[in-house]
Amino acid sequence: LDPRGDWQRLGVSELLVQWTAVDGTAYLSGVDASDGLKAARRLPDWTRIADEPWARNVIVGLAGRFDETSARAQAAQLIEQSRRLLAARPPVRVAGYYFPVEVDPTWEGARALGPLLDRLPRPLWISVYDNSNRGGEALAAWLDGWLPHDVGVFFQDGCGVYTRGPAAARAYADALAARLGERRVRIIAEAFRPGTGGAFRPASAAELAPQLFAYRGHRVYLFDGPHYVSAQLVQELLAVERPRS
Known about the structure:
By secondary structure, this protein is of the alpha/beta class. 30% of the residues lie in helices and 20% in strands. The protein is built from nine helices and 13 strands. The strands form three sheets. It has a seven-stranded parallel sheet with strand order 1-5-7-8-9-10-13. It has a four-stranded mixed sheet with strand order 4-3-2-6. Helix 5 packs parallel to helix 6, helix 6 (166-180) runs parallel beside helix 7 and helix 7 crosses helix 9 (231-239). The longest helix has 15 residues, at 166-180. The model has no long low-confidence stretch (mean pLDDT 96).
């Protein structure tokens, strides 16, 4: 709710907000209770955030749910809730919108999402992952078979839970860009690793730097700055020597 950091030192200038309403609670003022939304007791200071150098542009996440299964089952309702949220847009420089129902090839009902996305404004993004490791070309072909051609994808690299390494993630991104177009593909670099007791910990500079170096040439977003990328980690990343090509 109160993101603070010096991520601009890494070249960050755009903020991706995962959602502005989740499980019926909205983090925007001016929401209408008749829409099934209630304003959170505490809201982000959107005006302060808009002045941050790492948020010169903001991709605004719409309505979602914490539970993935529920979100997928209620995608149509979340689309309509998202449409009603648009009137309460935050006072930031909006660079696009993100519909936060994540997709992967094991979701049999994903194709039904395509026509629903036509109800939302553009530029529009969704996120995709592939924990079953079907491969970048297969993932790209699957998306190309149903995703509207004016909707972009954030590819979750899978490094945070060791699904794949940076080189394999780069190969996925390249395959997606080749099939969908470079402008429609951006990478989510997972800045966390498994911790103790089922929790997650911040990735170290030695773990995160190879991801960032591997993805050069693609637009990259850190997931996520407020929880995992501290000022100390930023400094350590800046000190890592760039590998020679």
